[in-house]
Sequence to fold (213 residues):
Amino acid sequence: MPEMIILLAVTDMDNAHFCIAGVSDGQWARPVLRPTSELPRQLTADDINTDGELWKPWDIIEVEKFFAVPRALPHSEDLGFEPRSARRVGYVDEPAQRAELLARYACADDSWLKLLNGEGRRSLCLVRAAQLSWFPNPYDPKKKRATLAIGRTTFNREGKGYSVVDHYASDWCNGAATMSSVSTPYVLLGLSRLYKERFWPMVLRAFCAPDYR
Fold:
């Protein structure tokens, strides 16, 4: 029987490679390619489109079957899939449905702290942010960085050594610093693969409930 995943992040990485993540059967999932010498792990635009249209957050993707792949903590969410057997079959368009899904999967405890420290057994976490604002990335003008406040903890380029990088152009981010006054901001956090002996925290996607306009 085919399996479904609701995409919450389609992250454009460097060198035209993509990382996708979402929820499937009540669990976080990161679809990846089968790791062989012939088939590289990185996804390309050819792997994540239906009829030439690139997949995007809130797309509902049907996969013939997910399969187990070698996992290295904290990336416990990795699931193998065959792109040729995957296609877009729907889209979560209703604001109420989006808000319910975000509230359901938001982290209810402080496990996101372990995630950001690379100490946990997971690499994806949706959190409700008390405040969210953006500023240019001095090292890459195509990207933005985020100052993210969760509870009493604030993460930015000076705070606690975290550099939270948003890989999106974030066209919705104009006025995002004040969006918490009109809606509930949620942030999907993730960890990079091991690089320079560290798993780097990233903002994969930000959401508002109801949607921020």
Notes: The helical segments are 95-105, 111-116. The first strand starts at residue 3 and ends at 12. The chain is about 10% helix and 40% strand. Residues 84 and 96 are 32 Å apart (CA to CA).
